[in-house]
């Protein structure tokens, strides 16, 4: 097994969760060539990984639009994509799409070994598989790494990986220089959390008031600066946080490509964020993080591997969390109290501890993970 394809068409965090598996494959298989199939939004993450040789893009929305407008164009585009994959002559695919349709396409593409998680019997075209009802009780990365046992490989690497080229790093240095960041600390405050939940994304977000209060305290007490970051869809939210601050943030940035977003984040000292892709980017870049989890289980989707440099705050007063299980988010009867019950003072305290500043007491209504 020398030529391997990894297929994960989900969010930024999901792609990063596959990087320990890729690193182990490269370590265990001499001369391995590993390619990746992902969506357009996560392409930059895959392309940043030096263990990956080539990236294919499957963009669901584009294919759905083709299907709606022209069936021949849809099949033509699909044929081109999987024709290229077939010409790759892959020995194996690690298929994380949880889709029987992709499994069938990989079979037609001539990939002999098709390894993955068998979710609700959708893995009928997998040749090696583990039964799977949804991520629970252990981290997603552990589920992915378990698949190495199906091919007789051991696990020795568990860290996620992002490697930025020197041009991107220099761009970030120049950007911060233009913002007069100086040599002081920069804390990234990220009030959004990525697009993977769509219209339900607000269910994962701590309040704008909370982020503003934390940003004010860190600006005052950290002897550094606060940068508010988000993507283009989160401009209103980021501006709202900045508007609620008493102090002024160093800057608010919501217009960067993912490559530049990662580069800029790599130059920060700490990220304060919700559950979501930005958290996992920060962890993969080696930043300290303070993250706030509501309906999602931090044991499954939290920063990985667990470390003293990553602090997770959850409500200690809400028995119903985590309620997001097996890819389903129920209606909330309690006005998202699992997030509303987390006090800004607790978040500030953990930030200052990680920045080696201050010595306050965490409020008893919060649990530190």
- The count of β-strands is 13
User: SSE order in H/E notation?
Assistant: EHHEHEHHEHEEHHEHEHEHEHEHEHHE
DSSP summary: helix tally = 15
User: Could you tell me the radius of gyration in angstroms?
Assistant: 21 Å
Largest sheet: 7 strands, mixed
Q: What is the CATH C level class of the largest domain, in words?
A: Alpha Beta
User: By CATH's scheme, which homologous superfamily of the largest domain applies?
Assistant: Glycogen Phosphorylase B
Give start-end ranges of low-pLDDT stretches: 357-369
Structural features, described:
Helix 4 packs across helix 5 (about 70-85). The chain has two domains: about 5-150, Glycogen Phosphorylase B (Rossmann fold); about 165-369, Rossmann fold. It has helices at about 10-15, 20-30, 45, 60-70, 70-85, 100-110, 140-145, 165-180, 210-220, 235-245, 260-265, 275-285, 300, 335-340, 345-355, and strands at about 5, 35-40, 55, 90-95, 115-120, 130, 185-190, 225-230, 250-255, 270-275, 290, 310-315, 365-369. It has a seven-stranded mixed beta sheet with strand order 9-8-7-10-11-12-13, sandwiched between helices. Strands 3-2-1-4-5-6 form a six-stranded parallel beta sheet. Strand 8, helix 10 (about 235-245) and strand 9 form a beta-alpha-beta unit. The protein is of the alpha/beta class and about 375 residues long.
Question: What's a concise summary of this model?
Answer:
With 369 residues, this protein is α/β, with parallel strands linked by helices.
Task: List the keywords.
6-stranded parallel sheet, alpha/beta, 13 strands, single chain, 2 domains, Rossmann fold, 7-stranded mixed sheet, 15 helices
